[in-house]
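User: For my dataset I need records formatted as: sequence, then structure tokens, nothing else. Please produce one.
Assistant:
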Amino acid sequence: MKPRRSTLSALYFTLLVAFLPLDLQAFSFNDFGDKSSAQQEEGAVDTQEKISAYIEHHIKDAHDFHLFSYNDAEGQRKHVGFALPVIVYTSQGVRAFMSSAFHHDDSGQYVVEKDGVSLVKYHEKIYELNEKEVHLVFDASHHPENAHAVLDLSITKSVFGFLLVSMLLLIGFRSLANQYKKRSVPIGFGRVLEPLVLYVRDEIAKPNIGEKHYKRFTGFLLTVFFFIWASNLLGLTPLGFNITGQLAVTFTLALFTFIITQFSGNKDYWKHIFWMPGVPAPMKVILAPIELLGTITKPFSLMIRLFANISAGHIVVMSLISIAIIMKSSMGVVGATALSFALSFFLTLIELLVAFLQAYIFTMLSALFIGMAVQEHDHH
């Protein structure tokens, strides 16, 4: 019983710490208790806009880490976080600097002057200002008139998380591989990894791809499964990662599945797409473009499903935490915080399951699509 209790205690502490950064920011907003009804209503709308902006900022990629904010003794806003490297290709060549170099100008935009190039960061997108321009000017469609986007190669928060997950996976599985050289049964964290590896191999790869071909693709399926799972778990930490909630990441993962599926397809696979056997010729002409479109929609569904579920989970959790901000005037700080924490804690426990479930679904469907491409049909 002692290991189980210690595990649960560690889980509760982790979840509590995960909610602490937003709670600190929550109570830095103005209270509405001693204001008139009109002022309270105006303040409530302003607070809801701040919450919406914070949630939108959280699920988007960023050029720095913003953990939380608070008001100091003098009432000034303080931000806690750390900078990341910014690498951009401009009209004058490559420019590299830390994101902390960006500063507010008089217009409220983030600007930096780097080796004769003026750069502006607006909604986490970096623009190069035209010559003699000092800040962005927008047209009626809210597009910059006096600047153009640069090629952004920065180490953003999602890229940093991607590298961190990759490093952790390399360390973990390198250690597991080294253990097999000395013993048949792994020890330590290897005991956690081994059953999961066997599960992916025996319950996902073999049934969906088949005994003959599964070994060729097990490495890819293991990489996808553990990368998505670790990224999802990292997204539940106070660091605020949303790696698999970025379309660029889910698109790349789905693209790998698409490429492997198409290049592994045998003649039966392509025959069933372009000239399906046992079907009247007129129907073959109709079905061929539909089946060809299906080769694209399958990885597209992988991309959207993972992106939507992970992003939605982050939005819902943070929306429940914001109850402590919105309802503290009517329920009191203690009551609103207790309700917010209870709902968020329960949903976070579900998110732990969703983190595994989404990794399983992506891996299972990838194995299914690959299995359909390499399956050998018996024609009678």
